[in-house]
Target: Dehydrogenase/reductase sdr family member 12
Amino acid sequence: KMVAIKTIKTSNSTTLPQSLPQNLTAVFLGATSGIGRSTVKQLAIATDGKSPTIYIVGRSASAATPLIAELRQSNPSATIEFIERDVSLVKEVDAAMQEISKRETKVDILFMSVGFMSFEGRKETKEKLEPSLTTRFYSRVRAIQVLLPLLNRSENPHVTNILAGGQEGPLVEDDLDLAKPGNFGVASSANQAATMLTLALERFARENPKISFVHAFPGLTATPLLSRGSSGIIGFLLQWIVTPLGGLLFASPDDVAARALFYATNARYTVEETEAAAIPIPQELEKAKRSAGGVFLITEKSEPADNEKVLAGIREKMASKVEAHVDNVFKEFFGQ
Model:
């Protein structure tokens, strides 16, 4: 079954603007294109007159200028802040989040849809990590880590990840960052990022019972996710042939964003402790169940994914190893 897009759009355009609090603070990683861009636009409209503060972290302020102008026009009460950082570097994401931590007392929504697929084999950033894996995993984990104190000060904190919730699979166990020759590929990196992300989110959920963690799969969406990871002829083909064709088969970014905004605000995807502060669930829907690890793993149909058969074994065998791996990587960068 599928949650009808009409149900979601009706809730987002009526219940959401009525129920959202004044002075909401939201942080977006990856809002300059694709799903993130559509979601931030819809959030700005929903908070019209309610003086939200919206941070967008991205690599190019000039590329974001038209978006920022549009957000300010659609919601003159909003404070829109762009922080220019390269989200494929963990230290840059850390710096952006530290800056937000100095300026804000709480964060209500952390929304992360940043990421791309690399079709060209493993390349390394100066941090010795692979950039598409960093945007989809390491940078997101660091953003959550730094913002935890602010999220815990919100009455209804939501961390929404758009990636591949419910599609977890066996990890390359002895090479979590896929550094060894032959281990890095489109499929292996997508699986590694999504599976490690779910395990990391489960740890955060366990330690922060007040925060709602969503890991959602958007389905196939007509966004530039595919094109950035490839140069030359492959990039050309992906951008000019696959992406336009995709428009016929894929959901529109606006519809996918409406679903994503619903996950980031609605009581259906909110932990019991803060449910009363969330947007009321539409009458025709019931509460979504969390995974055994305490995370809302959500399919492209906006329903809970059941991947427990696969996840149970991976969690038992690998959760503590993924935790140790991330701790080691971050220790090297931040000394703690």
Q: What stands out?
A: The beta strands are 25-29, 53-58, 79-84, 109-112, 158-162, 212-216, 296-298. The chain has one domain: 5-221+253-334. The longest helix spans residues 308-334. The longest strand covers residues 53-58.
